[in-house]
Design goal:
The structure holds two protein chains of two kinds.
Chain A: H1 2-26, E1 33-37, H2 53-62, E2 67-70, E3 75-78, E4 81-86, E5 92-97, H3 111-125, H4 129-133, E6 136-143, E7 146-151, H5 172-175, H6 183-187, E8 201-207, E9 211-216, E10 230-234, H7 239-247, E11 253-254, H8 261-268, E12 273-276, E13 285-291, H9 301-310, H10 313-320, E14 325-327, H11 350-359, E15 371-377, H12 382-397, E16 400-404, H13 409-418, E17 424-430, H14 435-438, H15 440-443, H16 463-472, H17 478-495, E18 498-504, E19 508-511, E20 514-515, E21 532-533
Parallel strand pairs in A: 1-10, 15-16, 15-17
Antiparallel strand pairs in A: 2-3, 4-5, 5-7, 6-7, 8-9, 9-10, 11-19, 12-19, 13-17, 13-18, 14-18, 20-21
Helix pairs in contact in A: 9-11, 16-17
Chain B: H1 3-32, H2 37-45, H3 50-60, H4 66-78, E1 84-85, E2 90-91, H5 92-127, H6 132-146, H7 149-163, H8 181-219, H9 222-230, H10 234-263, H11 265-270, H12 276-285, H13 289-317
Antiparallel strand pairs in B: 1-2
Helix pairs in contact in B: 1-4, 1-13, 2-3, 5-6, 5-8, 5-10, 5-13, 6-8, 7-8, 8-10, 10-13, 12-13
The chains are: A alpha+beta, B mainly alpha.
Chain lengths: ~525, ~325
Amino acid sequence: MIKRELAGLMVALAVLLAAVAGTEAGEPKRGGTLTYTLHPEPTALSTIATTAIPVATIASKIYESLLEYEGPFLTPRPGLAESWSVSPDHTVYTFKLQRGVKWHDGTPFTSGDVKISIEKVVKPYHSRGAAYFGQLERVETPDPLTVVFRLKQPVPYFLKAFQPTESPILPKHVLDKLDLSDAKSVRQSELMQKPIGTGPFRLQEWKRGSHIILERNPTYWKPGRPYLDRIVLRVIPDGAARAIALENGEVDLVPMSSVPPAEIARLAALGHVARSDKGTEGLGPIMWLEINLRKAPLSDVRVRRAISLALDRKKITNVIWFGQGKPATSPIVSGGQYHDKSLKPFEHDPGKANALLDEAGYRRGPAGVRFKLVQNYQPYGESWVRQAEFIKQELGKIGIEVETQSLDFGAWLKRIFTDWDYEFTANSSHNYADPSIGVQRVFHSGNIKRGASYTNSMGYTNKRADELFDQAAVETDGAKRERLFAEIQQILREELPVVPLMELDWIQLWNKRVHGLITNGISIYTGWDSVWVE
Amino acid sequence: MPPTALFVLRRVAQLVPVVLMIAALNFVLLHLAPGDAADVLAGQAGHATPEFVEELRREFGLDRPLHARFFIFVGKVLALDLGRSPIQQTTVAKLILERLPATLLLMLSAILVATVLGVLLGVVAAVRHNKWADRLISVAALVAYATPMFWLGLMLIVLFSVYLDVLPSGGMAKIGSGYTGAAYALDVLQHLVLPAATLALFYVAIYTRLTRSSILEVYRLDFIRTARAKGLPERSVARHALRNALLPVVSLAGVQLGHLLGGSVLVETVFAWPGLGRLLFDALMQRDVNLLLGILFVSSVVVILVNLLVDLLYARLDPRIVYK
């Protein structure tokens, strides 16, 4: 008798404990507001207008695409498409769409929306539209819930294209009213400011200079989602003020390193703040010294090697960037699938650098100076200035006198990418989901284009590298593709058209009451429908 | 027509060529900066083909030659059409009107606090001339003047928002609160305290010193001796003295009113106050030429009008001044 009662009591206790543990450990709670801050304020609410980080961050809550992704390598999962199939020759992709999806204004979502969005808007007007859909011949819509993409040639990374920031699906019933042949009419349309999407959140209020409020989409197609009632973006122009807002609880989340690096370290040490460098592997941020190969003596590869040897990347990472990243060994980030793991870390050896420059005939002059160089840097904040000072100091030790030039963003872009009027500049960019998107555009000689930012400003031409890039862009065999990219990385290591410095982390800081934020390699650019707050 | 009215009319008529000249100068200066809005927008996108950038230029009207753009601009100014910001995708007028109330609120509060407090302290310092009160106020004024506004703002936030947790760290109102009426006013007031105090402190220092020296100077003048000799009570003498001494303060306050319209960038940045100063700075970084020109245009008109008002006020206060 007693034993049975005792057993019953134990079971009840166990159930109780499990329930309590469940809520403690992470039973998503419905309701609440997530407030985040990111600088600068978005200029639009769609990545068709611009793919700048603040816009991508907020637009991805409002718009969706055919797929969602899992893990750092972006394994495709159902999104607006519940299933898909690929033809054996990888040129036909068939997607079956989810049923019962509605636009924020109640109109039903159909394949017609996908067709017009990709063909008429994303492909021509998205800044990476050509990279993803350049091989797209046409989109077919045999029925309202089926979409077929026909490609001219295989695109090995095609399934990675369907991220909400890269290929947002827009409403046909709104697009039909616009002149889609005119870029201005699309990018300046009201849709960019007053979005209508299928996503878990919709726009409630935008008070410029102050805040944006997104509210839950009550007719969202995923049952029970989103958990949050609202997402609020607070506009706070000053980095220190953003840090304070996180510290005193006025803001729950500061994504994408939107506070100065010194503050990141301090905030992460607070008991109520969590820190993560995960969630952006699908962006693949990398930093290097971009070198204008047209200018002597930088045209001499020995000089570039000497510059590389003179720089202590560990110091740069740990001292200047507070350990928020790791030294780079290649323009393809180590978190990427195609990173060549056999590449050894870059050597730091000023002695070798000196010897190399001597041997190359650049002797030291009377003041110990071999030659002068002018350096620029991406004007994204204090740490870039510190880094430039450090580089000046280190290159001074091997007899290169460096003059640092300070420009604001607009002026810097023009000098580097339009005028090609620079010698070397610190620069950062994204690999994105595949090297054919983010890396090819920097090193392929076909991308030497005046006025196109973040392209081949160096004037780098290597026929073999071009061939390899062209082949990799259509090679569907994974192993073969790896070999192609490996060879490219070997060439880039030999020739150093850029001197890779560091894989900069994008750091996320959030109040521990926020849960479910890091889900995949593009966590900040997802709908946050599974994010919840205590 | 009374001479003053003619004077006003003349000044208002002068407004047009002066503002046009300023606008033209701004236009030229802004276009001297390297890089344009298309560059910046494409750069922020992180990747752009030259075709994309060229398209943007066409959209923004930046592909036309400079002189053509200039004449279009002048035409628009004369028609009071401030144009459109291609980056923010609304009309410049709307953007300015959205931010103007916030700026006016901040500015007027700061000037009010600064003049009242400054004059008060200045009077105390002058009356207690060379005593410890005077020394204390003078030194405090110097420190306040020398303190960088930016640092002061951040320190106030740390003190009142983090440690004491009595005031919000930024913004103009509690987001999504749904407050209306008195509750809203109170909420804005709470948010206004720190930025207005930061902005005001600098000007308090100026007004304190100015009032103090002005009063001391006025007290040395002959008419004060005459008034005392006539047997006027010291209180009346003080009233006369103050009225004279405040003339330069009025002048300065007027000038600074116009100055503050676009110049509170630092305070607006630190406190995330949604005003024109910050808008101006952002527009510059983005090379949003239409917006910049619009803000500068509004700013120059306001400055000129305020100067006119100050001159008129001055004439009211000082009977010696007659406008012809």
